[in-house]
Backbone:
């Protein structure tokens, strides 16, 4: 799957109309310069050769150099990646907490307050663009109330020493309290916006799977034994609903990455999402291609991890 | 005879429509969509001002002359929202039509033929499907450049696999059913088996996917134009208006972001309510299981 994805990215970037070399140099460059540039970037070789070279490079961890900054793209992305991971983790946690608890509580009483509000919430929040929610937060908490910072990851002078590149963890490891506080304040709004949007999907999914589980015989048996309803829901039903939920959540991580692009742009969060958008603005095609390839790697990695966890959690799954 | 049965079925359908919540949902969704459709078609008559001409002072707050205020260039926000419906719907319908036109035939053939062809095509489609849609659309839109057709195409690419998967899986299970075998035994050609026996059976689910995708397509379009990859300004477009409004957020001009956002939300809400209701209506046993 990984190779197919890479191949498609490659095709999209090379075959679609719009010559990357022309776009980089502008329409007025003399023919000789264009030809030289083409040769330099290897665009004059047959397509399959180009793809072979590209694959080899990626396996070596080389994504080429940015046409704009001339720095290796892999390095540039490595600088930005921790910010995206940090944002995604916290967004995911927000979505997880809302999704699991609300989803599980909603199944306690069919048609109850939590059930109905949960359904309305899920449909409604699904219709909200993440960048709009983000802006609303920025306006309300940042401009109106002046409680929280609305852009960036941390105030410039407080940056903690780099260990993982994720400021919250770095400042925790180095016990840098001012930095920890500042970074936490910065991450609240973006992760909340991102997490709330994704939570609707989680909520629906948890609810759907739980309803399915609660109609099974083992739940009936647990109830018949007089086990408390809370325990039936969280220890019996939720545990068994975990495998299908996990699989879909793995897929949702991909959606989370996409949402992160918009969230990062909204909050000037310096992750790979805003890196991608910035590179598009400058038509830096090697960098765009490299970033998309990194996304492909992440997607494939997540699906492998989900499979492994599934196999660990559910003894029936064997590969 | 034909007409009688049709109107009879329609009447029965309408009565069923209002019997439970899903019907009401579909109806509310439909009403919202109709409003937007009318807005889009009759935009020149409904909009109080030209959306790309200065119509008042810049940054004026909502008032009697400008219900939703004006932008940094003095454009009327309400007029831009009304005209924006046109662009949003145009791109969404175009994108979904292209996606369906690619996905449905490929799904039909792939599911029916099976074998290596099916496996390779499925692998490709699954690869696209698993990739974050918006990021793929960003990449394609970045290469194609701005414009209605280009944006629609880049959105279409990410939704084609949805149709392909739905159709392919259903066809694969339908093709061994008795009625298909009977048709084959009577000497029907492959083409007519696909078109007259299998296609009508998969259409209901296609319609649901279609209306669901329209919601997603509008959302994706808004995202693309928010990132500056959509229609080139000053054409009225909700996503672009939002990103433009964000630049002035610090100055407390809330109307520039509130109203375009509400427009996106209500139209997407309309599509999702409609598709949700339609889903339970058309495939009553496929939807959520009820206790």
Residues:
């Amino acid at each position: 799957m990984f190779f197919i994805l890479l191949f498609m990215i490659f095709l999209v970037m090379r075959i679609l109309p719009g010559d990357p070399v022309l776009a980089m140099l502008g329409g007025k460059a003399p023919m000789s310069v264009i030809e030289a540039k083409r040769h330099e970037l290897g665009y004059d070789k047959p397509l399959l050769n180009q793809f072979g070279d590209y694959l080899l490079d990626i396996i070596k961890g080389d994504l080429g150099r940015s046409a704009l900054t001339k720095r290796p793209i892999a390095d540039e992305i490595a600088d930005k990646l921790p910010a995206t991971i940090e944002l995604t983790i916290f967004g995911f946690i927000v979505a997880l907490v809302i999704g699991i608890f609300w989803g599980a509580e909603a199944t306690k009483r069919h048609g109850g307050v939590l059930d109905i509000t949960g359904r309305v919430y899920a449909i409604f929040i699904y219709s909200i663009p993440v960048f709009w929610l983000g802006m609303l937060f920025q306006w309300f908490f940042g401009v109106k109330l002046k409680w929280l910072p609305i852009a960036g990851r941390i105030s410039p002078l407080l940056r903690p020493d780099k260990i993982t590149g994720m400021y919250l963890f770095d400042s925790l490891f180095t016990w840098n309290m001012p930095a920890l506080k500042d970074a936490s304040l910065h991450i609240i709004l973006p992760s909340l916006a991102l997490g709330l949007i994704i939570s609707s999907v989680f909520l629906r999914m948890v609810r759907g799977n739980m309803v399915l589980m609660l109609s099974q015989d083992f739940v009936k048996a647990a109830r018949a034994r007089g086990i408390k309803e809370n325990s039936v829901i969280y220890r019996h039903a939720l545990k068994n609903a975990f495998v299908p939920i996990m699989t879909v959540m793995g897929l949702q991580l991909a959606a989370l990455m996409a949402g992160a692009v918009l969230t990062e742009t909204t909050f000037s969060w310096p992750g790979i999402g805003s890196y991608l958008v910035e590179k598009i603005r400058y038509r830096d095609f090697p960098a765009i291609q490299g970033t998309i390839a990194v996304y492909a790697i992440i997607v494939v990695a997540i699906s492998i991890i989900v499979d492994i966890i599934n196999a660990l959690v559910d003894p029936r799954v064997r590969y | 005879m034909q007409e009688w049965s049709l109107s009879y079925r329609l009447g029965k359908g309408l009565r069923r429509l209002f019997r439970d919540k899903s019907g009401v949902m579909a109806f509310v969704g439909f009403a919202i969509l109709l409003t937007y459709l009318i807005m889009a078609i009759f935009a020149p008559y409904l909009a109080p001002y030209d959306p790309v001409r200065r119509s008042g002072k810049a940054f004026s707050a909502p008032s009697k002359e400008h219900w939703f205020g004006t932008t940094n260039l003095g454009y009327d926000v309400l007029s831009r929202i009304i005209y924006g419906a046109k662009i949003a719907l145009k791109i969404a319908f175009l994108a979904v039509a292209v996606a369906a036109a690619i996905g449905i035939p490929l799904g039909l053939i792939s599911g029916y033929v099976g074998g290596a062809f099916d496996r390779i095509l499925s692998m490709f489609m699954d690869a696209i499907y698993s990739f974050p849609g918006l990021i793929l659309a960003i990449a394609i839109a970045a290469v194609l450049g701005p414009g209605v057709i280009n944006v629609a195409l880049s959105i279409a690419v990410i939704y084609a696999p949805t149709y392909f998967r739905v159709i392919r899986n259903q066809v694969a299970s339908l093709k061994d059913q008795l009625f298909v075998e009977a048709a084959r035994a009577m000497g029907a050609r492959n083409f007519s088996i696909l078109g007259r026996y299998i296609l009508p059976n998969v259409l209901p689910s296609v319609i649901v996917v279609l209306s669901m995708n329209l919601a997603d397509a509008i959302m994706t379009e808004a995202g693309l134009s928010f990132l500056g990859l959509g229609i080139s300004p000053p054409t009225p477009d909700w996503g672009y208006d939002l990103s433009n409004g964000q630049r002035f957020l610090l100055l407390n001009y809330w109307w520039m972001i509130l109203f375009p956002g509400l427009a996106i939300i209500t139209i997407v809400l309309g599509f999702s309510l409609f598709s949700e209701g339609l889903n339970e209506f058309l495939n009553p046993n496929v939807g959520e299981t009820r206790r």
User: Anything to note?
Assistant: Residues 177-214 of chain A form the longest helix (38 residues). DSSP finds 13 helices and no strands in chain A. Chain A has a mean pLDDT of 78. Chain A touches chain B through 53 residues (CB under 8 Å).
